[in-house]
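Summary for the funding panel

The consortium committed to producing paired sequence-structure records for every protein in the target list. Below we show the first two records in order, beginning with the earlier of the two.
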Amino acid sequence: MSSSYRTKHQPIDPSVLPLMDPQYVKFHNEHVIYMPKTEDTPYSPSIRAAASKGLMPGSSHIRKVAKTEEFVIGHENIKVRAWTPLGEVPADGWPVLLWFHGGGWVLGGFDSENHICTAMTQDAKCVTITVDYRLAPEHPWPAAVDEAVDALQWVVGEGCTKLNLNSSRIATGGFSAAPKLTPPIKISFQLLNTPVVDSSIKEYTINTKAPWLSPDRMMWYRRLYLPNEADWSHPDASPYYAPDSELALVPKTFVAVAGQDILAPEALKYAQKLKSLGVEVETWVVEGATHSVMNLEDVMDSAKELIRREAEALNEGFQS
């Protein structure tokens, strides 16, 4: 069907257009503009099928690795997938990145961020393990948090033996929803990508016209994952409100921020709070990008550069 006859569900607001990266605008007008809005769709498990495969052609670049393995772990028999890099195993074992996919704790899955996981695996020379945590609304908060703890415990225990891991070089990371899934346990390094760190926000006031993640969409996710509003400011749902004594123990952190994202202000505020508590933080702002930047490596040069720098920072974190 000609694009001139297709319904344009998500046109870019004219006020935002001059602020956007031209490469993103081209992609948006070829693909995203025709996608129905998630928040206008009544929830059904069937909507996960497309989301779990990632957005094509934006995130199609999968790196070659030595091997890919899957394991069933924890009390709830959740699955984890491990990528091992090409090359010789270090004498003290592989460093490991424990990765939690995005999707608002409602969408996403094993296959939605393979491009990121394999990039980190090869470029940072680590084993990357992604967690197929249970999703809301069938499994609301704190199910995903509990499974993050199970996954970390498996990594430092059975996972070390099965995958030849170095338990003293563990990093955690994720995209969007994922940072809240990282438990407050001492680790070597942390990657936060366009993170949600304050779930108590009821009204967004900055970047509200930005493409991709609208205020209505954000609240659609939140009410499915956190149906009890009293939980919104809990530190496991809003890391920004964790006690300073805990935040001061956060490891060296890389925070990726998209310039045109409603979550940008809270990410920057969180990064500044960590810095004020003595945590070493690198903040990487991608101007003209939307919340989806990590999934657009094949579309935007700035997304490709972000993933390159992130893998580099991860490798540096393992060495420090």
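The next record, for a separate protein in the list, is shown here:
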Amino acid sequence: HPEFGFIPPDQFIPLAEQSGLITQLTLWVLETAVRQCRKWMDGGLELSIAVNLSTWDLREEMLPDTIATLLECYNVPPHLLRVELTESTMMTDIDHAVAVLHRLAEQGVKVSVDDFGTGYSSLAYLKRLPISELKIDRSFVQHITEVETDATIVRSTVMMAHGLGLEVVAEGVED
């Protein structure tokens, strides 16, 4: 922002949701991300890109169709797009979230659970959702070498995820 500088998502996303602008914001982010993927591909790089989705985004019936149209328009393979959701985002309306995410996965879009371990969900949803990746929250990763309980949680989560055939990402690795 020209006056306030960098504004973190946790400050502007709730405002976008409250004002009803979140869908337009998400569509802009999705198109920008897919366009960037195309530029990378044109430069000889096949890199994936991730976009966070909110509770409101999952309520949009046309979201999978919109994403399919963007991928087709920019000629980007679906596997290069990853949508990320937090546990709490999915738990708001789990049945609808499952339906939308299955449609996206059927198109080849990857689905990731962001900030895993911080939500109030049941592990049972891991069986229902077409996820391909768990991102372990930084609160467990940052002090993994000093706090044994964090190390145990991370180790157990990695074992569980691998047992389910999921990729694992550790957030907050900075040292």
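Regarding this second record: The chain has nine helices and five strands. The mean pLDDT is 90.
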